[in-house]
Design goal:
Layout lengths: L21 H14 L5 E4 L6 H10 L8 E5 L5 H9 E2 L11 E2 L1 H4 L4 E5 L6 H13 L1 E2 L8 E2 L3 E6 L3 H6 L5 H7 L2 E4 L9 H10 L11 H15 L10
Parallel strand pairs: 1-8, 1-9, 2-5, 5-8
Antiparallel strand pairs: 3-4, 6-7
Helix pairs in contact: 1-2, 8-9
């Protein structure tokens, strides 16, 4: 069952990443190599550059591709709920906990868990997350026993975590645990040709899902934007 505010539905086009930008081609080569090992991956980049798409690409290219891909947006959950979502809880652990409930680490068993906006994870939860990465075990809230988990973790953020570490908003030990493989997604403005890729999935959707605009209109609007602003177009794109 999907959990409101945490998981997002996957689509068939989510891993389409054949782009013309040399920087993106190099990034995909690195991502494909990273997919073959079980190391944690930290994906950085501005909002809208396609960090979740890259995470899905890694999952689909990995030996875990037959397992689940479970994304969670950490900033979309209240601090009081994030640990229950990640680690699960036992019946009676808190008011409203009427049933035992596995967390997302258990839901992603033999697959991949994406912690999107990982920079927004509270410090206390960061300590528990670090232990999961070290011991490969989770303990549901309200339980005394540990449960083994077999999960590949990918984290993504649009924050500069080195600054957060320096200002003690993010744990340094967790930071280094997450960035065993460090992938940076360049912003769209660095290559206007990249839009040709991001526009393709939208062209296969109905006009209603693309804000009422056809694929031809999307291309025309982008061309006009580049003519006006030149190569320094500041925005990115969500599809």
């Amino acid at each position: 069952m999907e959990r409101a505010g945490s998981r997002r539905p996957a689509g068939d086009n989510d891993t389409e990443l054949d782009v013309h930008s040399p920087a993106m081609r190099r990034l995909l080569e690195l991502a494909a190599r990273a997919a073959q090992v079980d190391s944690t991956v930290l994906i950085t980049g501005e909002s809208g550059v396609g960090k979740e798409r890259l995470a899905r690409f890694i999952h689909r290219a990995s030996p875990r591709e037959q397992g689940p891909f479970v994304p969670i947006n950490c900033c979309a959950l209240p601090e009081a709920l994030i640990e229950s979502e990640l680690f699960g809880h036992a019946r009676g652990a808190f008011t409203g906990a009427l049933h035992d409930r596995p967390g997302l680490f258990e839901a992603a068993e033999c697959g991949t868990l994406l912690l999107d906006e990982v920079g927004d994870v509270p410090l206390l939860t960061q300590v528990k997350l670090l232990r999961v990465l070290q011991e490969h075990e989770v303990r549901r809230i309200g339980e005394n026993r540990q449960r083994r988990v077999n999960v590949r973790l990918i984290a993504a953020t649009n924050r500069t975590l080195t600054v957060d570490v320096a200002e003690r908003r993010f744990r340094q030990d967790l930071y280094y645990r997450l960035r065993v493989v460090d992938l940076h997604v360049p912003p769209l403005r660095e290559s206007s040709k990249t839009f040709e890729h991001w526009q393709k999935p939208c062209s296969r959707r109905s006009p209603e899902r693309c804000g009422g605009r056809s694929a031809a209109t999307q291309r025309q609007r982008w061309s006009e934007c580049c003519d006006i602003h030149g190569p320094e177009t500041s925005g990115n794109l969500r599809t």
